[in-house]
Amino acid sequence: MTTTEADQVTPEAVGPVETAETAETTETTGHEHTVHGYHKQKNEHLKRLRRIEGQIRGLQRMVDEDVYCIDILTQVSASTKALQSFALQLLEEHLRHCVAAAATKGGDDVDAKVEEATKAIARMMRT
Predict the structure, then answer these.
(1) For 94-116, how does the pLDDT look when each residue is reduced to its tens digit (9 = 90+)?
(2) Vertex 85, ends 97 and 124: CA angle to 5°?
(3) Residue 28 to residue 123: CA distance in whole angstroms
(4) Contact 99, 117 (CB under 8 A)
(5) What residues have CB less than 8 Å from 76, skipping those under 6 apart?
């Protein structure tokens, strides 16, 4: 291949490159990188998570400033509720998008998606 030909090769022409990181993600989760149910609200989700991150930083600041325990616990409760609310919204989007798509497609995939969602709900209930 000449230098000119090498310059013309684009990532799109080569196709997706699997790195150790992406291979590990696919192996451990069993999911390929596709458009997920939260995709349409991604910016809103990121904004919400940044707000929660600010709450957590506020907790660190409160501890650093020796704020009264109950006041810190009140903020912990608010942060926990914010994360739980985010998780529920994400779960709803997963059910509407991923599980519904699997149900439409049919086959064993729908059972796997329902089981996956059930396990996620069980993890959320333990917290």
Answers:
(1) 898 889 888 988 888 899 999 99
(2) 80
(3) 17
(4) yes
(5) 59
